[in-house]
Structures are given as C-alpha cells and as structure tokens.
What does this fold into?
Amino acid sequence: MIDGRKVFSVRSFNSGVASWLARLPTVWVEGEVTELRRQQRWASVFFTLKDPEDGACLSVQMQRGRFDALDLGLADGERVHVFGRPELFEQRGELRLRALTIERYGLGAHLAGIERLKRKLAAEGLFDATRKRPLPRFPRLIGLVTGNDAAAKRDVLTQLQQRFPPANVLVAETYVQGPKAAASIVAAIGDLCRRGADVLVLTRGGGSFEDLLPFSDERVLRAVAACNVPVVSAVGHEQDTPLCDLVADVRASTPTAAVRLVVPDAVELRASVERSRQALHRGATRATERHAQRLAVVHERLRRAPLLELERRQGKLRTAHARLVALSPRATLERGYAIVRRDGEVVRSRDEVAAGEAIDVLVADGAFGARVE
It folds into this structure.
C-alpha cells in the first residue's frame, strides 16, 4: 500500500489477469488465418486470426502435435473456426488464444472434405485411366441427366438436333443443386441405365462452388463409377473441376462440347460418305479398266495362239521337208549322178553286169536304155 493506494507490480498484474482469464470457458472464434508460422524445432505452431470485417486480430498458439494431427493443410487467407481458451502470456502481457482444435469454415470446410474424398477415391482406383470406356460411335439412345428448364439442357438438345438429327435422347430432369440434388442425380442415373441408354451425359451449367457441390458428392461419384455404360461429365464451365469429371469416362469442358463428343456431325458424316462413295466409284472404274485391259491382252493371245501354233508346225514341216529332200535319191540325181538298173535291180558293182547286157539308166529328168560294152 502506498498512500492508501493498492499498487501492483507488472508481474502481479499480469499474473492476476492470467488467473482471471483461466477461469473463462473455452470458446469458438472465427477468423481468417494470417502469419502462419511453424519451425521444425518449435513445439507449437503460431498464427493470427484476423476479422475480415474490421481487421481486428488475435494471436493463436497450438501444440504442434495437435495441429499436425488435424492434417488441414492450412494456408494464409483461409477462414476457420478455432476452439480454445484465452490466456495471457505473462512475460510480455500478450493476450492469445490457446487452440485445442481447428475446423474449416464454409468454403474451406467443403474444400477440405472434397480433398479427403479425392484422395480416398484415388486410392480405390476410381480415377484410373485404365477403367475409362470408349464412347459408342453411333449411340442408339442417349441419356441426359440435367436440371428442369436448365440452360444446359436446352443447349444440349439444340446442339444434338443441329449436329445429328437422328439422335434419340431420353431426358431425366433432376435437382442439380441443393441438399436433394445428390440423391436425385443417383436415381436418374440408375433409371436411364435401366431404360436402355448406351451413353449418359451428366450436365448442368455454371454456378458457384456451392452450387456444384452435388457433383462432388460421394454418392454421385460411386453411381457414375458403377454405371454400366460410358458417362460424359459436362458440369459447369471449363475452369470448374467437380470430382465427377475425374470419375466419368470422358470429361467435356461445357455441355455443348459434350454433344461433339457423343454424336458425329451429320454434315461431316454425309460429306465423308460422299467422299467414300466417290473413292469406291473411282476404285471400281480403275479395277474395271484394268480387268478390261487384261481381257484384251488375253483375247489377243488366244486369237494369235492358233496362228502361232500353225506357223510353228509349218516351220517344223519345212525343216523336215528340207531334210528329206536333202536325203532323197532325186536330190543326188540332180547333182549329176545316175542310177543304173538291170532287170529292175540297182547295179551296185561292175561285176553285176556283162558286156552286151541291156541296162536302164535313170537320170534327174528321165530315163534311157543302154548296153554294156
């Protein structure tokens, strides 16, 4: 006591305030994470909670083991709810909140849940490329899961009519946002499969992150994975990536893009058929011309074959005739020789005739008689 006044030392004052704060109950405090600090050698993690409305700040300390066990992956700027007890760091007189647990708030909580679900389904292999099925070239019946009176539905139906008029479409209108959407989408997928659709298009237009949450719901993802026909996911805009895009067999950036994947362009198809028809016509014409040329060649060969054979045989006859002529006695006579006969027998030796006998002499141009001297 000094002059009737009770005076506290700084240490006593801080200790008293700390003692009083210790009697306060645990509380939840909401704010944005800033100045997140952690070091390998520190036993605690420190960050600041900032009020996004007026910028008020509150220091927060949490045991490192407890913080790591939450596995939240927090970063500056995320909005959280922190459950803890207020305390005063007596040495510096600083008020802080000793955190016992942390939960993401709003968008952050949903993001964390989606990330956990993504890791779970990836571990089960639901995103593997090996399980993706090809789309049918010409689908007999297209199942369309979409919202009632949705712009996405109008876009898809209009594009289908323009791109491939013969397309048969079975529309299942369902909730595409809100608490009833996930169960409604699952029911629509099952109904279209039972009614014989051989490809499904799951679509809705763009929207906020919260609007697209049903398309990252585990029930919807498992229904898409279990569907017995290929599924095209066309949810939101190109920058939107709900988890159904990863589970579906094909992802389309927009509902209009889904139509280009599901059906061919009738105009291009007709042009392709016409090109094929012309190519077949040209091929048939060329084949006919080649066969006609071959037939003409064969016909000419067949026409000339008897003449050639006759010429070959005549040549052989001429050769044989020439040989016979060369070997015949007449040919010998024509060279100046003569054949002498006595009583019709050829005289081959002078001893076969006697003086005074009549003989016949045959020469090339005739015969005459003679007498031996």
Summary: The chain has a mean pLDDT of 85.
